[in-house]
Amino acid sequence: MAYFFLVDVLAVLFFLVAIGGVLILLLQWRDKRDLRLGAPPGTIASAIAIAGQSELSYILEGMDTMEEMETLLSDLTFRIDSVSIFFICLSLFFLCVC
């Protein structure tokens, strides 16, 4: 009996979140209509283009030289852990099978 109440509360909560998301999209629709992007939306290039036009780029300008950045980033490496790779491969397998 208590589980049915919990499910109802969660359903109402998800519904309210969905309505809030739709309202935000509708309120931003006019502002996004005049937005000109140099790259397709959702790409890293468009995010960099928008960030480059903000005041943050002027604040960060001249803070670090190229040599300082190379020194700071030289010890960092990028890798995807084996657990993530396993789940990605597993999900791709199930997508292909189904």
Rg measurement, Å: 22 Å
| Largest sheet report | none
Outline the low-pLDDT stretches.
Answer: none
- Describe the global form: extended
**Structural class label:** mainly alpha
Number of strands: 0
Short account of what is shown:
This protein has 98 residues and is mostly helical. It has five helices and no strands.
Describe what you observe in this structure:
- The chain has 98 residues and is mainly α.
- The chain has a domain at 10-63.
- Helix content is 71%, strand content 0%.
- The protein contains 5 helices and no strands.
- It has helices at residues 2-33, 44-52, 56-60, 66-73, 82-97.
- The chain is extended and about 60 Å long.
- The model has no long low-confidence stretch (mean pLDDT 80).
Draw up the topology in text:
Blueprint: H1 2-33, H2 44-52, H3 56-60, H4 66-73, H5 82-97
Keywords:
single chain, 98 residues, mainly alpha, 71% helix, extended
